[in-house]
DNA sequence: GTTCATATTTTGATTAGTCAAAATAAATCC
DNA sequence: GGATTTATTTTGACTAATCAAAATATGAAC
């Protein structure tokens, strides 16, 4: 029932309210959607009439539970579609965001469930972005970034939080994808430069800004050092 | 670039002009698109301005070669998507038309090509509708229907030309799908009734109107009767 | 407590797509 | 040939979504 436009508004409100108190400013929403602020004010009032958001004039906007549910469904479609495009159709991870931006509005809930099953119920998309569960649960785990994690510590990339083609192509070129193991060799705050050391010993320089877009978790101990491997049952 | 609306207009003009001289009446197009005739007149003039159709006032409308090319791409997307939904996601063939009606406007040419390869370059969709080739060739082979083919003759269903859920569910229930072998046991023009005999001897009654929607070709000789089987090379 | 800068809202206009209903052209029938 | 039926076109109005630019509110700075 909801138009593509409405779905996009809700999805952007959801993404922008992640980690905050939930109130999203008109300005932030406008630039996120690439429309002028006046348009957002008008649309948000319409969404509020429809019961999908709560609008606090001159304060911001917030999803209602109905709006949040719809937004989560759209986000789930987006990320499952991206996963399908990369895992099944072997598309470049830098290209799938734009595709999914259209497809998220065109697939039914039935197709969504079948894609989910085909892909084996994945919990993250090719960029490491968490996929909302069918019941609307969205992981909000907080990770360190390459700009903040301790130097020398072995870490594994879990997520790249940046959709732009250019950034993703650069990251792929330098083997910076979810699953990659590495450590921060050096961090120079003055120069705004981070140097990474990859598994093979290769080093990669990265701006601090770029490093902040790459989320990592502590490297799990490799198998031969693991104290008590679980028996396969 | 073209909106979903424009794509739908072009696709419907293409389908309605199949087999005719190419001129489609405003009235036919309006009922096919489920809009009022005045809307069609307005839109067709806009399409003509855009060079996608030629409008002969009070006569009809016809695709230009650019419009025909676009229409064929949309049709190709529609039918490949249907094939994907049935063959890969195992959806019911009665449900996929509505899904494809949306998806045909959301998938890129790149995704189209990858789907085509994944499916093994099929030439017909689950209903037997021919899939336009990547170079815009659309098979226009003429087939007999169950309403016209000789009684007693063993035939094989090649296509079911009717998108409605109800009809397709009925056809599935009675095992009337592309590939099925059968023959017309009896045709009673007065009663408007056709009786089919399936392989297992089971008979199925069918209205003449419904029989006309089912296209067939002469049954190929079964292997044991074939005079000169080609060697597998 | 004014003044200023900034974000937000309002106003007026535009585009795509649609419908209802009136006007018009064309074909058909006597 | 004139009247009638039918399809098409025109006209006027409406909705969703947008922008440009003017008006307004709010918090910060002086
Ligand atoms: Mn989108
Ligand atoms: Mn993603
Ligand atoms: Mn369509
Ligand atoms: Mn089909």
Please describe the topology of this protein.
2 copies of one chain form a homodimer.
Chain A (H helix, E strand, L loop, with lengths): L3 H14 L8 H8 L3 H13 L3 E4 L3 E4 L1 H23 L8 H8 L5 H10 L25 E2 L8 E7 L4 H9 L7 E8 L4 E6 L4 E5 H4 L2 E5 L15
Antiparallel strand pairs in A: 1-2, 3-8, 4-5, 4-8, 5-6, 6-7
Helix pairs in contact in A: 1-2, 1-4, 2-3, 4-5
The complex binds manganese (II) ion (4 copies).
One manganese (II) ion binds next to α4 of chain A.
The structure holds a DNA duplex (30 and 30 nucleotides).
Short overview:
The structure is a homodimer. Chain A has about 230 residues and is an alpha+beta fold.
Description of the molecule:
Two copies of one chain form a homodimer. In chain A, helix 1 packs across helix 2. Chain A is globular. Chain A is built from eight helices and eight strands. In chain A, strand 1 and strand 2 form a beta hairpin. Chain A has a six-stranded antiparallel β-sheet with strand order 3-8-4-5-6-7. Chain A has a two-stranded antiparallel ribbon with strand order 1-2. Helix content of chain A is 38%, strand content 18%. Chain A has helices at 4-17, 26-33, 37-49, 65-87, 96-103, 109-118, 165-173, 208-211, and strands spanning 53-56, 60-63, 144-145, 154-160, 181-188, 193-198, 203-207, 214-218. Chain A has 233 residues and is of the alpha+beta class. The mean pLDDT of chain A is 93. The first copy, chain A, folds into three domains: 4-63, Winged helix-like DNA-binding domain superfamily/Winged helix DNA-binding domain (Arc Repressor Mutant, subunit A); 74-140, Winged helix-like DNA-binding domain superfamily/Winged helix DNA-binding domain (Arc Repressor Mutant, subunit A, Orthogonal Bundle), CATH 1.10.10.10; 144-218, Ferrous iron transport protein A (FeoA) (SH3 type barrels, Roll), CATH 2.30.30. Chains A and B meet through helix 5 and helix 6 of A and helix 5 and helix 6 of B. The structure holds manganese (II) ion (MN) (4 copies). One manganese (II) ion (MN) binds next to helix 4 of chain B. One manganese (II) ion binds at residues 79, 82, 125, 127, 129 of chain A. The structure holds a DNA duplex (30 and 30 nucleotides).
């Amino acid at each position: 029932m909801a138009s593509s436009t409405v779905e996009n508004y809700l999805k952007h409100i959801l993404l922008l309210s992640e980690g905050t108190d939930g109130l999203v400013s008109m300005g932030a929403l406008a630039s996120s959607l690439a429309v002028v602020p006046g348009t957002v004010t008008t649309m948000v009032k319409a969404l509020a009439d429809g019961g999908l958001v709560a609008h606090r004039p001159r304060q911001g906007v917030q999803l209602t539970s109905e709006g949040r549910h719809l937004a989560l469904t759209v986000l789930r479609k987006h990320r499952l579609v991206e996963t399908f495009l990369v895992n099944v159709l072997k598309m470049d991870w830098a290209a799938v965001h734009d595709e999914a931006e259209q497809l998220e509005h065109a697939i039914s809930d039935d197709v969504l469930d079948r894609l989910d099953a085909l892909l084996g119920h994945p919990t993250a998309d090719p960029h490491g972005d968490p996929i909302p569960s069918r019941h609307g649960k969205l992981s909000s785990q907080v990770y360190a970034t390459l700009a903040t994690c301790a130097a020398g510590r072995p870490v594994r990339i879990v997520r790249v939080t940046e959709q732009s083609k250019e950034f993703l192509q650069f990251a792929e070129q330098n083997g910076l994808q979810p699953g990659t193991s590495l450590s921060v060799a050096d961090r120079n705050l003055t120069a705004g430069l981070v140097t990474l050391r990859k598994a093979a010993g290769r080093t990669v320089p990265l701006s601090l800004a770029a490093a902040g877009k790459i989320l990592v978790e502590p490297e799990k101990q490799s198998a031969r050092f693991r104290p008590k491997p679980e028996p396969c049952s």
